[in-house]
Design goal:
The protein is built from 18 helices and twelve strands. By secondary structure, the chain is of the alpha+beta class. The chain is rod-shaped. The termini are far apart.
């Protein structure tokens, strides 16, 4: 880094009096004196490591700049006369001249004490002045800021920025206060510093300008300067000279800070004159006055230009005044086209009027905002009061609601326990009924099995009876040969027996149907009881099903009653016919003689072989003869089985 500075990569020295920091291009104050630049580089190079804004590279760059200023710039000859003092030579001079023969004890690091700092009470606030104001200027309206000590230009920039900002964080009162502070720094503070031997370094030109200038003298505003004797040369039949931008850069390097330079032309010919424009604020006025005095001190002012007949080739310049404004030349025409003649007092009074108007407007705005704030505070208090009342009411409502909820929950719990108990009771009853139905079902199954066995046995007996009927038919044929009346009676008896057999089969079917109907009725009654218990829970579908079951039960009961009535009627008919048959049999038996064994042999041959058929036929014929001799014997009987009349052969 030091080698880059030494090789001339960066430009540090701008002119004999001004220097620049090549590592701080963004810094607003770019033109330093040698002492200021050395102090700037030393301060940044030796700042603490806690400073986040400065990187290690920045510190190293400024350390190299300090070394370059102390070693290379200090020993170089100044191009126009004096050279900047060297820090090492200055320290040596102090040691040699000031401390010879003195045996005193000093505080180290070297420390000085400064007292009786001049201050000025303006509008009830103290503001520091003088050379020490570099670090003692403070903003009286921002005591909470971390950076309390300002340089004059920094404090002026701080006040102007807040006065013109549009942020909502700054109130109208803050903006008015900082606007007043900026006005004070630009006018009163600069004038007050003019009588002191030390001035704020950033406003020294302003102080000199305000002190040495007659406020009643009229100048051209915006602040302008006149430059004459610009070298011109004839090229291609026309006079040309240095451009305005080059002339502006040339003046800027000398510290005049112009914002624009207008070169004046007459019919496309360079007139050798130019108008220099400065900023419209007081710093621009200070630059214009410094511009005027610098050329006047160097004998290149307006007086020298007008007085001398043998003029040098250097530039002559001065601030534009009313006589330049009224001149009948290209300079006067240009000034009249872009400016107006005004005094400093007029400008100050106009700014004061604008400032007062702005302050009044801001004060009115502040008062309006204050009234609005008071109204809002009143509304906030009313809202808080009503909100507190609503909170109390809400708490009361919530307490009542919680109590009601607890009561409802308690009642619901009791109801649930009652329903649960009833449900358990009904469940037990249903289990009991279920067991009863299962038991009845088992009994019905047993009965059905028994009935099946009885039907099988009855079928066997019917088969035997059929065989017996064959024998009886054979006997009847034999008897017909004896007596036609007996034969007719036998035939009628046969028909009656056939009808009787059919009726027996029909009665068996009716008995089965009756038992099935009784079983179905019992099942329907069981389902009905279950549905009736289930219906307490409010199921509409279950209730509809119960009604259908009740209707079906009633139909089955009516069908059972019809079957019962039919059965009784058939039993009576059977008894009557049985009585008639017995009477006919008695009459037939009395007329019958011995039985013919031939039908018995034919019947037994169908079931047995020849030998066994003869034996069986003889036994059966003898048995029938014995049966016929017994008056109590009846081939057809009606037996009561489990309350049901059945026909037995």
């Amino acid at each position: 880094m030091y080698e880059e500075l030494k090789n001339g990569k960066y430009q540090v020295k701008i002119s004999n009096k001004s220097y620049a920091c090549p590592y701080c291009p963004e810094k607003r104050t770019r033109d330093f004196r040698y002492e200021d630049l050395l102090q700037h580089a030393t301060a940044i190079g030796s700042c603490s490591s806690q400073n986040v804004k400065r990187t290690e590279r920045d510190k190293a760059n400024h350390v190299a700049l300090t070394k370059y200023l102390q070693t290379d710039i200090a020993v170089l000859p100044a191009g126009g006369g004096s050279k900047p003092p060297s820090a090492k030579s200055h320290a040596a001079a102090v040691l040699e001249q000031g401390l010879q023969g003195r045996d005193e004890v000093f505080v180290w690091p070297w420390t000085g004490v400064m007292v009786n700092i001049p201050t000025d009470l303006k509008n009830g606030h103290y503001v520091g002045k003088g050379e020490e104001a570099r670090k003692t200027n403070i903003c009286p309206y921002c005591p909470w800021r971390r950076t309390i000590n300002f340089q004059y230009k920094d404090l002026l920039q701080h006040a102007s920025a807040i006065a013109t900002c549009s942020s909502k964080k700054r109130t109208a009162k803050d903006k008015a206060n900082h606007l007043s502070l900026a006005k004070y720094l630009q006018i009163d503070f600069a004038v007050a510093c003019a009588g002191s031997s030390t001035k704020p370094p950033s406003s020294s030109v302003v102080v000199e300008a305000v002190t040495d200038y007659d406020p009643s003298e009229m100048l051209v505003w915006p602040w302008s300067g006149v430059v004459v004797n610009i070298p011109v040369e004839l090229i291609d039949g026309r006079y040309v000279g240095e451009s305005g931008s080059k002339l502006r850069d040339r003046l800027s390097r000398r510290g005049f800070n112009p914002i624009r330079v207008r070169t004046l032309w007459i019919d496309k010919w360079h007139s050798g004159t130019a108008i220099v424009e400065f900023r419209k604020d007081w710093s621009g006025f200070a630059d214009a006055m410094f511009f005027d005095k610098d050329y006047e001190v160097n004998n290149h002012g307006k007086t020298n230009w007008l007085a001398k007949t043998d003029k040098s080739s250097d530039l002559y310049a001065w601030i534009a005044r009313v006589d330049d404004y009224n001149a009948n030349d290209v300079i006067g025409e240009t000034l009249r086209r872009f400016g107006d003649p005004r005094t400093v007092l007029d400008i100050m009074e106009e700014e004061a009027r604008k400032t007062n108007k702005l302050v009044i407007s801001l004060t009115n705005t502040f008062e309006s905002k204050k009234r609005c704030l008071l109204e809002m505070e009143s509304k906030v208090k009313e809202t808080e009061s009503s909100l507190s009342q609503l909170i109390v009411e809400r708490d009361n409502i919530r307490r009542v609601y919680n109590e009601e909820i607890r009561k409802i929950q308690s009642s619901a719990w009791d109801h649930y326990k009652k329903i649960f108990k009833d449900h358990e009771k009904l469940k037990v009853e249903l289990e009991t009924q279920k067991r009863d139905l299962e038991r009845r079902g088992q009994e019905l199954m047993k009965r059905e099995t028994h009935n099946k066995i009885e039907r099988e046995r009855l079928a066997e007996e019917l088969e035997q009876n059929a065989v017996k009927n064959c024998s009886l038919q054979a006997a009847a044929k034999e008897q017909r040969r004896a007596d036609e009346n007996v034969m007719k009676l036998a035939e009628e008896h046969k028909k009656q027996k056939e009808k009787l057999h059919k009726r027996i089969i029909q009665l068996e079917k009716q008995l089965d149907a009756k038992q099935a109907v009784q079983l179905e009725v019992e099942q329907l009654r069981g389902k009905l009881n279950v549905m009736m218990h289930m219906g307490h829970e409010g199921d509409l579908r279950v209730l509809n099903k119960v009604e259908l079951l009740i209707k079906a039960l009633r139909e089955k009961e009516e069908e059972l009653q019809d079957l019962e009535a039919l059965n009784q009627y058939l039993i009576l008919q059977e008894r009557n016919r049985n009585n008639d048959l017995q009477d006919a049999r008695k009459e037939l038996v009395n007329r019958m003689g011995e039985l013919d064994s031939k039908p018995f042999h034919e019947a037994m041959k169908k079931k047995y072989n020849e030998a066994e058929a003869n034996e069986r036929a003889s036994e059966l014929c003898s048995l029938f003869e014995e049966y016929l001799r017994d008056p109590e014997w009846h081939p057809v009987k009606v037996v009561d089985v489990n309350g049901t009349h059945q026909v037995w052969l």
